[in-house]
Write a structure and sequence with these properties.
The chain is α+β, with helices and mostly antiparallel strands. It has a domain of 117 residues: Aminopeptidase (3-Layer(aba) Sandwich), CATH 3.40.630. 27% of the residues lie in helices and 29% in strands. A 4-stranded antiparallel sheet has the order 1-2-3-4, sandwiched between helices. Strands 5-7-6 form a 3-stranded antiparallel sheet. Strand 6 and strand 7 form a beta hairpin. Helix 1 crosses helix 2. It is globular, with a radius of gyration of 15 Å. Bound molecules: coenzyme A. The site of coenzyme A has 18 residues, from strand 4 and helix 4.
């Protein structure tokens, strides 16, 4: 099957899509982040993009649209907040985060396109390394060149931190 033709836009440009993807994010990771909520994720997905290299402020989200402009998936680039404070000291951002593809649109290359987009964006912004934390998808990211860095726990649940190097 040919890859689907996607457009990637700031998530804030489609605020009506935010609650659906916020719910999917909460279903996937709510058990790892006890202070998370669908309301907070909805707010984050609707926030205006602020392109900054200040990790304390960096919080960007994009949406993949199909050729009919239907939203298929989201991804975020975050400065921090992905791992617990003790680990965060040694694992600085930026972080690829919040990657969710609508279950009806999986295995069509949507996540791969979003990962490539955010990786290129982080590189364009001047970052040299991008991290992520995942509970179940280590091999998915390894197949895309990501490297295991450390085992951590999120709310006592084992997770793996991985990184990719953003070549100059
Ligand atoms: C993990 C997740 C993001 C993957 O999304 P996706 O859009 O299905 O991912 P892709 O389509 O890019 O890749 C999935 C597989 O489909 C295959 N694929 C991609 N396009 C395809 C096509 N046109 N035809 C057939 N297969 C295809 C890919 O080769 C890939 O297999 P591989 O990993 O063996 O290479 C999605 O399952 C999801 O949202 N899961 C829940 C949340 C989650 O786990 N998020 C990420 C973890 S932090």
């Amino acid at each position: 099957m040919d890859p689907i033709a996607l457009t990637i836009v700031p998530a804030c440009s489609r605020p009506e899509a935010a609650p659906h993807f916020a719910q999917l994010q909460f279903e996937a990771w709510g058990h790892l982040y006890p202070h998370s909520s669908i309301e907070q994720s909805t707010f984050d997905l609707r926030a205006e993009l602020l392109p900054t290299t200040d990790l304390a402020l960096l919080r960007m989200a994009w949406l993949a649209l199909d050729p009919d402009d239907s939203p298929l998936g989201v991804i975020m680039l975050l400065g921090g907040g992905e791992v617990e404070p003790d680990d965060a000291l040694e694992l600085p951002g930026p972080w690829l985060a919040g990657l969710i593809v609508d279950p009806r649109s999986r295995r069509e290359g949507v996540a791969s396109a979003l990962i490539n987009f955010v990786t290129a964006k982080a590189k364009d912004m001047g970052f040299e390394r991008l991290r992520l934390v995942t509970e179940h998808e280590v091999s998915f990211y390894e197949r895309r060149g990501w490297v295991r860095e450390r085992e951590v726990t999120l709310n006592s649940v084992p997770n793996t931190v991985m990184f990719t190097t953003l070549a100059p």
